[in-house]
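Protein: palmitoyl-protein hydrolase
Species: Rotaria magnacalcarata
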Amino acid sequence: MNTLSIRDLCCLFCCPPLPSRIAAKLAFLPPEPTYTLNVVDSLTPVNGTIDQKSSPTKTHLVDANKSVRYTIAFSEKAEWQHSQSDIAKLEPYFVTTARHNRIACLHITCTSDPKYYILFSHGNAVDLGQMASFFIILGTRLQCNIISYDYSGYGASQGKASEKNMYADIEATFYSIKQRYNISPSKIILYGQSIGTVPTIDLASRHNECCIACILHSPLTSGMRVAFPDTKRTWCCDAFPSIDKIHRIRSTVLIIHGTEDDVIDVSHGFALYNRIHIQHQIEPLWLDGAGHNDIEAHGQYVERLLRLIDVDIPHISLKKEQQTLIVPPVQPTLASTLIIPASTANGTN
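Structure follows.
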C-alpha cells in the first residue's frame, strides 16, 4: 500500500475523490465465497442470493428471528479443520441492515456456559467459511461464544463492500444479538481485526453502552495514513477515520499489534492507544517480532485475551460498582439564600 505509482495515484483519487471510492480501492478484497447457507427443510442454497422461502424484511429487527433455520456447507477453500459433528456448533442466520443489504451471520456455540459473547469483525480477503475453524478454537480457549458476520459483498452477504455498508453491517448484527439471543451489552465484547477494527470502533464510539470491552487487533488509524504514512491529519477524502472516533469509546479498550507489521505499521496502534480516554486504557500487547497475519501464533496472544476476560474486566467492573455506591451528600439550599447571577437571569452567558 505504501508504494503506489503515479498511475495508481491518479486512479485512486479520481474525481470526485469520495471516501467510499478510496476505501473500496485501498481496502476491500472480497474472496470467492467459501461456503453456502442452506434452508434446513429444503436445502435451497443461499450464496449471496435470496431464497424463495425467506425473502428479506425491511429491518434487521424482524429479519433476526428464528423462524427460518439454515445450515452451512463449506467448500474446499474454507479449509474446515473440524469434524462434521462440530458443524452443529454453528448457527447461521441472516439480518437485513438499515441500508437494505441482507448479510450472513454466524453464531458459534463453543461452550454451554459462556463468560462473554464476542462480536467478531474479521479481516480483509476472508469470509465466514475461512474463519469458522479459528472461531471454534478461539472461543473454546477463551470459554466464550462467538458471533461474526460477513460484510456486504463478502461470502453469502448481499450488496457491495463499502465503508457505510460496513458500519450498517455491524450495527445490524449487534441488534440481532440482543434480539435473537437476549444478550445484555454487559456480556458482549467487540473484537475487530485489521479492517474489522473500523466498524468495531465506529459502533463503540456511537453507542456508549454496547459492550463491556473492545479488542482492536492490528488496527488502523485511517485509510490515508495507511497508504501515505506521512499523513498527519484527516482529510475530507479520507476513509476509515478511526483516529477521530476512538476517544469517544466508553468501554475498556485492548490494543494488540505486531511490531513487525508491514501492512498496518505498529505506529497506528500507538497512535490509537494514545487517543483512548485514560479511564478506559488498559495494558496493550505489542507483540515483538509479530507481523500482520501471525499474531494468533504467539502464545502471548491468548494469554493477554484471557487476562482481559478473567482479570481486567472483573476488576474494572468492580471499580465501577464501588464508584456508583459512593454518592456525595447533597447540600440543601434554602430558597431565601439562593442567589441567581444577573447574567443568568437575563438569559445571557
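Remarks: Residues 6-321 form a domain with the Rossmann fold fold (CATH 3.40.50.1820).
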